[in-house]
Amino acid sequence: MGELFYNKSWVVEGITDLPFTWCSSNKDNYDNTCERTCENPNDCVIPDPADPERCLCPENHMVLGDSCIPQSNVAVTFKGRRRISRSESYINSDCSLRITCNSNVLTSESYSCSADATCEERNDVRRCYCNEWFEGDGLTCTRSGPIDCSDLYAANRTNNGAYTIYPAGSSGFEVIVKCLVVVGQ
User: Fold this and answer.
1) pTM across the whole model
2) Which terms are listed as keywords in the entry (predicted)?
C-alpha cells in the first residue's frame, strides 16, 4: 500500500485542505534527489524545480512498473560495459525472467526454455538456445535432424557406431542405426 505525505511548509493557519500526494508502494517524497531510468541508468534525472516534491524512487533504486527496486538487483543497467538499450531485453542467469526497458520503465515477465533448449550465454547474449539438431528461438524448438547417416557425417560425426536418426516424415519417430563411414568413397 502507498503512503501519504505532505510538506509541513504548506501548513498555513486556518487552511484545512492540505495538498496531499499519494505515492505508490516503495516510493516516497524526496526533496533533493534524482531518479534513474533504463535509458540513462548512470545519469540522474533531476526533479523539476517547479514540482519540488513528488513521488520518486529512493537513491540507488530504479523504476520497475509502479515500484522501485534496488539498482544492484537490476542487471539490465549494464552488462560489463555494454548498455542495454531501449526495447532490448536482459535474461537472468537461470533463464526464468526477462527484463525489458520500454519508455524508460523496466518490465519483467516470466521466461522459460523449451525442454529441447539450454540456457546459456553466447556472444555476450544470455538466452535459451535450441540444442543440437533442433531449430527455433529457444522457447520453442523443433527437431531438425539428423535424418540419415549422411547428416551425421556432415556434422563431423565420422566415427563408426550406433546413432539415433529421425527419418523425414516420421513425426518424431526415432530409429537407432549403425552408420559405417567409408573414407574415400
Assistant:
1) 0.48
2) Disulfide bond, EGF-like domain
Number of domains observed in the structure of the chain: 2
Name the 3-class secondary structure at 151. Answer: helix
Inside any domain, residue 61: yes
Neighbouring residues of 83: CB distance < 8 A, sequence distance ≥ 6: 41
User: Which helix (H) or strand (E) is 127 found in, with range?
Assistant: strand 125-130
**Per-residue confidence at 48, pLDDT binned at 50, 70, 90?**
low
Structural domain that includes position 164: 145-179
Per residue in 162-182, pLDDT (tens digit) is 887 777 766 667 788 888 777
- HEC string of 96-112 equals CEEEEEECCEEEEEECC
* In a shared domain, residues 21 and 72: yes
Give the distance, in angstroms, between the CA of residue 157 and the centroid of all CA atoms in the same chain: 36
